[in-house]
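This part of the workshop introduces the protein records we will be handling. To make this concrete, we reproduce a full record directly below:
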Amino acid sequence: MESQINVWNAAHKRELGHKKEVHEEVKPLPELFKVSGVKKILDLGCGAGRHLVYFSQRGFTMSGLDFAAEAIRQSQEWLAEQGLSAELICNDMIRLPWADDIFDAVISIQSLEHNELSSIQKIIGEVHRVLRDGSFFFAVVKKYPPRKDWKKGKFTELDSHLYAPTEGPEKGIVHYFFTEGELHDMLTGFTINRIEEDKKQRHYCFLAQKVVTGA
C-alpha cells in the first residue's frame, strides 16, 4: 500500500490531478439525485476534487476520501477557490471512517479499479455499510480486457484482470479490469438499475441502490 500511495502522490504532483473535466457519465446525476431526495454524497477516491466541486456547486453536501494526501490538498485548494467546502479525509477505502447508514449516495469515478480484487470486495462492503437503505451507488470502472492501445500497450499483467503501466504518469499504478458478470456478483445487497458501457466502450458505468432492509 505504501508504494501505491507514493506513486499516487507523485502522479498528483505532476498532471494527473489538476482540474480535470467532470466525467461525462456523471453530468446527469444531479437531476436524478435531486428528485430522489439525495442530499449527502460521498466521493470515494475524490482525486483533485472535480466531482466534489461539481456537486457542491449544485447544492449537495459533499464528503471526499482519497488515500493520496496530495489529492486532498488539491481538492481543498480547488474548493476554496470556488468558495465551497466539503468534508475531506485522507484514508484508504477499505475502512471508511464513517458510521453506518449516513450517506444518500456514493460515487466512485475511475478509482475503485485501483485496487486488487480482494480489496475491491471489501470496499463495496464498506460502501453498502455507509449508505442508507435505498440510497445510490454510482461508479465508473475499467472494462475487461484492456485494449491493446491502452497505455500504448506498455503495461504488464500483475494478476488475473490486474494490470499496471510500465511507463508514463501512471507507471506502477494498479488497474483492475471488470467483467459485467463480476459486477453483478460483487453488488450483492444492491439492486442494479443499470450497467452500461461508456461511449468509448472502455469502462462500465453502473448505478445501483442499497436494498431496503426487510423489503
User: Anything to note?
Assistant: The longest strand covers residues 131-142. The chain has one domain: 2-142+179-210. The chain has six helices and ten strands. Strands lie at 40-44, 61-66, 87-90, 103-109, 131-142, 155-159, 162-165, 175-176, 190-197, 203-210.
